[in-house]
Amino acid sequence: MMVADEVPLDDKAKRMRDLLSSFYSPESAMSTGTDSAKHASPDDINSNSFDPDHYMNLMVHKSNLEGLLQRHVEMAAEIKNLDTDLQMLVYENYNKFISATDTIKRMKSNISGMETNMEQLLEKIMSVQSRSDSVNTSLFDKREHIEKLHRTCNLLRKVQFIYDLPDRLNKCIKSEAYADAVRFYTGAMPILMAYGDSSFRDCKLASEEAMATIVKNLQGKLFSDSESIQKRAEAAVLLKQLEYPVDNLKAKLLEKLDQSLKDIQLKPEEIKDVSVDLTPSDSAHEASINEFVEAVRAFRVIFPDSEEQLVTLAKDLVTKNFAIAEEYVQTRVCAADLLGVLRVIWNDVLLLDEVLQEAALSNHSLEAAKAVVMSYIKSAFSHLLQDISDSLLKVLKKDGMGEYSLEVALDASTKAVLQGGMNILQEFRKLLDHNSGILVRLRELTIDFVQEGIQDFFRQLEDHFLRFSGRNNSSAFKDHGLVEGAQGDKAFAGLVLVLAQLSAFIEQTVIPKITEEIATSFTGGSVRGYEYGPAFVPGEICRKFRSAGEKFLHLYVNVRTQRISFLLKKRFSTPNWVKHKEPREVHMFVDLFLQELEAIGTEVKQTLPQGKRKHRRTDSNGSTASSRRNPLREEKLNRSNTQKARSQLLETHLAKLFKQKVEIFTKVEYTQESVVTTIVKLSLKSLQEFVRLQTFNRSGFQQVQLDIQFLRIPLREIVEDEAAIDFLLDEVIVATAERCLDPIPLEPPILDKLIQAKLAKSKEQNAIPS
């Protein structure tokens, strides 16, 4: 069976619109219906051409009984909905019609009395107009008379002003009120030009005579050096108002304006005064710059085409002030002084910018201020470098007050480096914290300048240390008034030791603190780029000073060892050892040797920390193998037979191959014991080499044996590696025996007796001064 087609929703909506349209506009609905009827089919139930019979036949053919019943239900529902919609439309429009009727009734009742009121108003207006006309007619003659009298009064006042003009001008000349005189004269010019040759001839002549005096006085003010720039500019303006030809005065006025720049430029004494008070409202400089600004403003009014010359003058003024500031910061100035100077200059720039915006002085000042800040940072680091150098060079000064304490010099130097560096960074921090317009724009560049300055400062400091440690720089030592000769050598060694410890202090303490401060207060920057050098690189600085410290420490060891070696060389190269007499006491070179070691111990105690004493063999990079001291060798040395003593040497050399190795030359540490031990080792090694260059008889060999045996006890007390020292002392005796013609040692009782005698003598000598 076929199912009946449902009516689309669009058709239903279309029917509703047609119904509403037909209700509100029947004509349009009819025309619309006529147009749609032309295109509608007979089975369209909403069209005018609808044919019920045709529609029923079509429905019967298309639908079954169930479909027809369903269509019947749908059409009944649609009819009911249409009836409801029509009822609502009729009700709503009926309410609107009733409201419109009530409104029309109220309007009709309100308008009913309006015509009477309008007629009464018209009558009153006509009455007022007639009375006004009568008043005007009665007062017309009097008004004309009053206006005539008023015009006459004004004319008489002008005539009186013309007659009084010469007296007024003379009074202005006496009081130097030239601006009022020019105003009076220019106001009277139209009358004088019209009637000056007839009625007011005398007044005109007297006024012209007075104005000639005024023009002369104004010219005098214009070219007077004692007058201020502002007054001269006012004089030029007044002359121009009098139509005086002032264009030819332009060059002279510009020259005067250029000369006045000398009074406006900052001077060192004024800069110091300004730095105390950053806002001196009544300062001479502020008054001068305000006067200059007013003169420039007046000059632009007088000479509109003078802009280029005025811009040049303003730029010259700002450039010279920044140049003076740059020269000023080369001296020792604090950040507050610099801020005061920059603030004064920046205020000048802002004032000039108000009258010369075309000059763009703010941008011009930026480059100049950059140079001033860079110069200040470099100067601050330069003065810090000088302070550190002065504290170090006190070790070498010829002060005539005895030796300068190395401990004091080291303490002063460490404070100068650490506290001086931190204080400078605090001063630089003030530049970043200041809210001045020009410094805010330079903040990133200032950070770059500070970091680059620190990097360059430590490089220069290392170079200074290296120059101080160079002995060939004798001219510099003489220029600073430093000691020379033996005392100078001793002071130089102390300076090198201070430099070594100071380098270690910079690496371990100063650089970490500086790095922390940089990370806290000077982050950012990186505006200038790598072409101007790297920023602060702490790792590189630490490596430089670590290497420099080790170099200075080795240099100190070498200097002290060379001095002792010179003493040993003189001792062993001077006498004739083949003809040496029997030993009766320890030789005096032993005392000199111990005195040198005592001086070294005093120096290292003042500068280096104390380490741990070691009573065993030490580890090191280099080693020298030899035999240790043993009773067998001493027993052989005590034999009286020369042949047996020589055979002992062969046995000793063979024993070296099987004895335990003793490492001698170890790495030098930053401790007192390490430095002293290294110097003693090198000295004993030099002693061994000097012995090998000589030939000894029995007495010479015994003298060396006595001296070496005496050195054992004091050397053990000051070194940290006793085994190595014993080994080297034994090596000296063995080397002497090898070079001896008859190597027979002293008997132990005799050896002990001579040593005890020396100890007693030394004790007695030490007790006498006390």
UniProtKB/TrEMBL annotation:
Keywords: Coiled coil, Golgi apparatus, Lipid transport, Protein transport, Transport
Protein name: Vacuolar protein sorting-associated protein 51 homolog
Cellular component terms (Gene Ontology): cytosol; EARP complex; GARP complex; membrane
One record GO biological process: retrograde transport, endosome to Golgi
Database matches in InterPro entries: Vps51
Chief subcellular location: Golgi
Coiled-coil boundaries: 104-131
Function: Acts as component of the GARP complex that is involved in retrograde transport from early and late endosomes to the trans-Golgi network (TGN).
Stretches with biased composition (Polar residues): 620-629
Compartment annotation: Golgi apparatus, trans-Golgi network
Keyword Cell membrane tagged: no
Subunit details: Component of the Golgi-associated retrograde protein (GARP) complex.
Stated family: Belongs to the VPS51 family.
Pfam family, one: VPS51_Exo84_N
Region (Disordered): 605-644
Source organism of this protein record: Arachis hypogaea (Peanut)
